[in-house]
Amino acid sequence: MTHQRYTTGWDRDYNVIFSRGDVDLSDVALGSSSVKTQVNVVFGSGVLHVNPALPVRVDMSAAFGSVEAPDGRSVSFGDTVYTSSSYRDGAPALEVRANAVFGRLVVQK
Known about the structure:
The protein is mostly beta strands. It has strands at residues 2-5, 13-17, 20-24, 35-42, 45-49, 56-68, 74-83, 94-101, 104-108. Strands 1, 2, 3, 4, 5, 6, 7, 8 and 9 form a 9-stranded mixed sheet that branches. Strand 6 and strand 7 (74-83) form a beta hairpin.
């Protein structure tokens, strides 16, 4: 099982491929602009950890897999969006593109 943590100033993709893994974005600190990243699970299973106090937007996409949000929303084929209660359009936020292909990704706060 892999464990990947957010590193300040490093906008990167986080990948879980043919394995199990955690992606921990709970240490993201917002400044005057949004932090954008992507999490991909391919032929595996993953957990994405986000800080419940942050404004968060997760664009969830799945093909032959599933992405599950903390509010119970999920997608198994297609796209949907999860936003935290503190998210506001146009304000700085953690913005994640979450993809699952033949895999499962669970977003937890």
